[in-house]
Amino acid sequence: MTSFLSGLLSPGAAKHRATVATVLAVCGVVSLTACGKSIQIGDSKDPSTPAPAPATSSALPTTAAPGQGAGNSALQVVDSTARDAGLNGTGGTVVGAAVQETPPKWVQLSAVTSPQLPVAHLINVNQAALYRFDGDTAAPSQSNCKDACASKWPPVIIKEGGNVYLAGVNPKEVGAIRRQDGQVQVTVGGWPVYRFSGDAGAGDLNGQGLDGKWFAVGPTGQKAVR
Q1: Does residue 170 sit in helix, strand or coil?
Q2: pTM for the predicted model, two decimal places
């Protein structure tokens, strides 16, 4: 387990306070080809604007072998860590209150437990906790956090055509929407995923339960609560 965690985390992460207790394997019994897929990017509509029936392509993405994207409108979900794919660093993912000026080339979602929250919840490659918002919807996937909300709760965005690497998350749960500002946001279980600007370091969960609507997100999009 120690060697696996060393590959999962970014090179400097081990120097942060240790919070990751367990990495949960979800798709270990399925072949890597079956666990890799391309996902089409759906649209997150303004709730004040009548929307057409949701397209099924975002809910039922086609499968593809890792590394074979479906063009600029698609992302590739890969059932392995970025380190396993030969990548180092963060892909461009920032930390804490830092502004994500350009979308990362890749992101990583990892399911862990921690002393603060001993149930499965997701972190990114910087070990920052990831959250979901009760004001959003999962069917269809829609983000209702924008403007000031999105500054406080930065959406987990990614460059078009980028890769989403996973550890302990079933690729079938991962999707993406296009936000109203044109950015592509990752979803899990249909729920748009965010980080919290008030989490300054690895393992922080300062956003948990805020306003009674923000909660750590679990590997199927569920609220991660005790």
Answers
A1: coil
A2: 0.76
